[in-house]
Design brief:
Blueprint lengths: L48 H7 L10 E2 L8 E3 L2 E3 L6 E5 L14 E5 H9 L1 H4 L5 H18 L4
Antiparallel strand pairs: 1-3, 2-3, 4-5
Length: 154
C-alpha cells in the first residue's frame, strides 16, 4: 500500500478589526461612561434615591441570623453555623436583578450591612441557602408597602 500526501490549503489570515479609540480589540467604539442629559444614570426613571435613603436607616436583614458559611470576620461560631454580626454601613441591596439591568428600586431593595451585601453579590448561591429569595422578596415588598403608608409616592 502506498501513502500519498496531498497539500492542504492554508487557512486565510484573520481579518484586522477596525475600531475606535479604545475599541481596537473588539472592533466596536468604546461606550460612553456617562450621559450628560441623564446625569450619569442609564435608567433614571426607575431610581428612587429617597426610598433608598430611607431603607438604609432600617436594620440589616441578616442581623443575628444563622448562616451555613461565614459572611464576615465578625461572625461567631454557633454549633457549626455562623451567627451573623453586622459590619460596615447599611447599604440598599437589590434582590434578584441588579440596577444595571434596569430594575427599579421600590419592591426590590432591602437593607444589608456592607459585609452581607458583598457576600450576597459575590456568592449569591451560598447566601440564598440561609436567606431565601422568597424571604428577601417578601421583605422588599413589605418595605415598599411601609414606604407608601409612610407617605412616600406609590
Amino acid at each position: 500500500m502506498t501513502w500519498v500526501t496531498k497539500p492542504c490549503p492554508k487557512p486565510p489570515p484573520p481579518k484586522k478589526l477596525r475600531g475606535g479609540k479604545c475599541g481596537a480589540s473588539t472592533g466596536r467604539p468604546r461606550l460612553k461612561n456617562r450621559n450628560a442629559k441623564r446625569k450619569g444614570s442609564a435608567f433614571p426613571k426607575v431610581r428612587d434615591p429617597e426610598f433608598c435613603r430611607w431603607v438604609v436607616t432600617l436594620p440589616c436583614v441578616g442581623r443575628g441570623l444563622l448562616f451555613i458559611h461565614r459572611v464576615s470576620m465578625h461572625d461567631t461560631d454557633f454549633y457549626g453555623l455562623w451567627r451573623h454580626r453586622c459590619w460596615g454601613e447599611n447599604t440598599p441591596a437589590h434582590i434578584g436583578k441588579h440596577r444595571a439591568q434596569g430594575v427599579g428600586d421600590r419592591g426590590r431593595v432591602v437593607s444589608m450591612c456592607q459585609a452581607l451585601h458583598d457576600h450576597y453579590d459575590t456568592q449569591r448561591g451560598k447566601c440564598l441557602e440561609s436567606l431565601s429569595a422568597h424571604t428577601l422578596t417578601a421583605i422588599a415588598r413589605d418595605l415598599q408597602q411601609r414606604w407608601v403608608e409612610r407617605g412616600g409616592a406609590p
